[in-house]
């Protein structure tokens, strides 16, 4: 039982990160019907921005909630800027061409970001500084043990980083929900995703809304990047490929274009992956196949429910 | 001259040419004319890449689906055939050498290896293709991307084929095999494209919904094209493996698939000659970049060959921004193309340029847009 709970907690932690990235995929897909291949790399850009911010501002040596907040928000802003630049200079000019052209451009952008980072920084992993430390004035009953864990029961425990990841993800998702359903920008986003041309006729500045969507998705991915780096501090230029792929699978599993679906998909993928690693040995699946889990799920979803769990099938019309 | 005589003469000429180049590549050379080891290596890689590019063009260029995991199928072909030749090859060779002679036995074993590699890749293509090609949209891209990465991880964990340490393979391949299969690939793909299957594939590329309305079983044709394409990738993998004599999963990373994509995008999606051109350019380009002097980038010395992938990416984006159909577009470069260009009288405009029905291609993007808008 303790092991099960522990696996579930670990799975949900990774799941929330996948969910944060999947939101960006699903929002861009909802608006442009484009698989933004570069989104996984934006996640990487976010992690690296966080790394440089922490080191340049000297926050790496004085971990506190404040420095973590500064690094997180700074990385989100930088990634949002990167997302807007990519949209403006790569995707917008080819939007008028066929989908194939946009897709190839997206692949090109992804490749460009990855290998620009490899060329400039080398392929060796960097170690992201540990930024999280609770304030001293908290009563000792609220402080974690020296490994940063809170004992739950039995051998199950919840680490402070896990609380951070789950908490920040939920807050960001609530903010996203608020933006999409309670603000004018969000209403415009929904209108554009419903029908781009009609939205334009209604006087919506669609270019601006698309750029905003990219900024929002990229910021969430960057948050995912910084949070992952707190959980697993090695960051490297190609880290976005596999994680991006899994997040995309999460978006497809939940129903691509569907925002709650992306979160649900992310959590399910994270949990499935952790359980395969944890219990796979018992049924003969070595843990090295963890990356194959998401892929198998993708194949199964495409076979049995291509619209995803929460998506609805849209009849195609001529 | 009757057609079949022309064909036989053509085939003989090609075989002669392959043999001449093969002899020139050998250590003694042919009548004193030889090709050095370095150019010979590039030449071999060019022909392997031609097989890869032309076969990928069938699914990406002619059918309009987007596969980005060609290296995965190449790896399947390479590793299955290598398993066969390493563990059973010599045994079979010895058995057959008694009855058909040594050279023929070696050739037969390698031929079997090639066929098995092609078959294995085709089966994988079927498994990957059916779920993703039933659907419209870009699912194939992401599925093939995932597949190529997963297959690499799986191979890395199989110790029988060397796992992470690599796998030594007998060197059966030579220029006759590689060049011969490149020619066979080109001819087969060209014939498919010109046949009724090819028409169906092109109609799917132009408008999937309309071709379905015309009674074309789009899923069947898409899967067919994808399976053929992957099986040729398998063949290229077999040839590559038995030429390099050493296999490592690093040879089948993402980058490999992207290189093949860039070849066909550069040459023109939907042009066989374009893919050949692209394969040649992209194989030779890194060698040329290596000749360039080292520059200083952000304080550290960087060779242009290291920037190869950044250059490819910029090339890819640049082509999409300026000429998305690639250098040749859907056209084929050849004698007919040259002749037609000369013969066209003055003032003769291209079909549909002035009035009447507009060319589909010219209006395709806008038509696509409005259709998508309706669907939303």
Written overview of the protein:
Chain A has helices at residues 2-32, 39-56, 65-94, 99-121, 160-182, 184-194, 196-201, 206-231, 240-254, 259-279, 290-304, and strands at 126-127, 149-153, 156-159, 234-235. Chain A has 318 residues and is mainly alpha-helical. In chain A, the strands form two sheets. A two-stranded antiparallel sheet of chain A has the order 1-4. A two-stranded antiparallel ribbon of chain A has the order 2-3. The longest helix of chain A has 31 residues, at 2-32. Chain B has helices at 3-25, 37-62, 70-100, 102-133, 139-156, 175-194, 196-206, 208-213, 218-244, 254-267, 272-291, 308-322, 335-343, 360-375, and strands at 167-168, 246-247, 295-297, 300-302. Mean pLDDT of chain B is 83; it is low at 352-376. Chain B is globular, with a radius of gyration of 22 Å.
Please supply descriptive tags for the structure shown above:
heterodimer, A: 318 residues, mainly alpha, two-stranded antiparallel sheet, 4 strands, globular, B: 376 residues, two-stranded antiparallel ribbon, 14 helices, 71% helix, disordered C terminus
């Amino acid at each position: 039982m303790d092991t099960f709970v522990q696996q579930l907690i670990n799975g949900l932690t990774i799941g929330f990160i996948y969910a944060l990235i999947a939101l960006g995929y699903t929002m861009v897909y909802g608006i442009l019907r484009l698989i933004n291949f570069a989104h996984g790399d934006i996640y990487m850009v976010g992690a690296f921005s966080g790394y440089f911010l922490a080191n340049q501002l000297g926050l790496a040596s004085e971990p506190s909630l404040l420095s973590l907040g500064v690094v997180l928000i700074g990385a989100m802003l930088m990634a949002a800027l990167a997302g807007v630049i990519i949209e403006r200079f790569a995707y917008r000019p080819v939007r008028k061409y066929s989908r194939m052209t946009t897709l190839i451009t997206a692949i090109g952008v992804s490749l460009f970001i990855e290998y620009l980072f490899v060329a400039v920084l080398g392929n060796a992993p960097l170690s992201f500084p540990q930024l999280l430390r609770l304030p001293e004035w908290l009563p000792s009953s609220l402080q974690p043990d020296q490994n940063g864990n809170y004992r739950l029961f039995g051998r199950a425990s919840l680490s402070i980083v896990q609380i951070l990841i789950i908490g920040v993800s939920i807050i960001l998702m609530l903010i996203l929900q608020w933006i999409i359903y309670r603000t004018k920008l969000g209403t415009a986003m929904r209108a554009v995703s419903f029908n781009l041309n009609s939205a334009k006729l209604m006087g919506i500045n669609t270019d601006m809304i698309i750029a905003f969507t990219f900024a929002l998705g990229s910021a969430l991915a960057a948050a995912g990047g910084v949070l992952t780096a707190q959980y697993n501090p090695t960051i490297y230029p190609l880290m976005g490929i596999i994680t991006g792929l899994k997040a995309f699978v999460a978006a497809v599993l939940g129903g691509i274009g569907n925002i709650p679906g992306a979160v649900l998909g992310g959590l399910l993928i994270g949990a499935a992956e952790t359980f395969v690693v944890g219990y796979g040995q018992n049924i003969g699946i070595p843990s090295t196949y963890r990356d194959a889990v998401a892929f198998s799920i993708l194949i199964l979803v495409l076979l049995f429910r291509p619209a995803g769990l929460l998506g609805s099938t849209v009849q195609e019309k001529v | 001259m009757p057609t079949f005589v022309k064909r036989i003469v053509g085939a003989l000429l090609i075989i002669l040419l392959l043999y001449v180049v093969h002899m020139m590549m050998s250590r003694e050379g042919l009548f004193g004319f030889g090709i050095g080891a370095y150019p010979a290596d590039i030449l071999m890689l060019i022909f392997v890449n031609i097989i890869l590019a032309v076969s990928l063009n069938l699914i990406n260029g002619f059918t309009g689906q987007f596969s980005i995991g060609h290296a995965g199928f190449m790896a399947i072909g390479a590793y299955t055939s290598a398993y066969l030749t390493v563990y059973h090859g010599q045994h079979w060779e010895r058995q057959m050498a008694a009855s058909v002679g040594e050279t023929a036995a070696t050739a037969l074993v390698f031929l079997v290896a090639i066929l098995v590699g092609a078959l294995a890749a085709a089966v994988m293509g079927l498994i990957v293709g059916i779920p993703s090609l039933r659907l419209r949209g870009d699912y194939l891209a992401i599925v093939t991307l995932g597949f190529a990465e997963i297959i690499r991880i799986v191979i890395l964990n199989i110790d029988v084929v060397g796992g992470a340490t690599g796998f030594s393979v007998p060197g059966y391949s030579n220029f006759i095999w590689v060049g011969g299969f490149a020619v066979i690939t080109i001819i087969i793909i060209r014939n498919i494209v010109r046949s009724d299957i090819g028409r169906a594939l092109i109609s799917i590329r132009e408008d999937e919904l309309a071709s379905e309305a015309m009674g074309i079983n789009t899923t069947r044709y898409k899967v067919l094209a994808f399976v053929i394409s992957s099986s040729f990738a398998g063949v290229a993998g077999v040839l590559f493996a038995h030429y390099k004599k050493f296999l490592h999963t690093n040879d089948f990373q993402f980058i490999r698939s992207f290189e093949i994509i860039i070849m066909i995008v550069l040459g023109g999606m939907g042009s066989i000659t374009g893919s050949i051109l692209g394969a040649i350019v992209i194989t030779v380009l890194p060698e040329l970049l290596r000749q360039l002097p080292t520059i200083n980038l952000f304080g550290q010395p960087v060779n242009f060959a290291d920037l190869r992938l950044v250059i490819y990416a910029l090339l890819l984006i640049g082509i999409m921004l300026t000429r998305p159909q690639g250098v040749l577009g859907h056209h084929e470069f050849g004698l007919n193309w040259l002749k037609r260009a000369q013969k066209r009288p003055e003032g003769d405009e291209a079909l549909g340029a002035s009035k009447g029905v507009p060319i589909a291609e010219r209006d395709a993007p806008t038509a696509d847009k409005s259709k998508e808008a309706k669907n939303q």
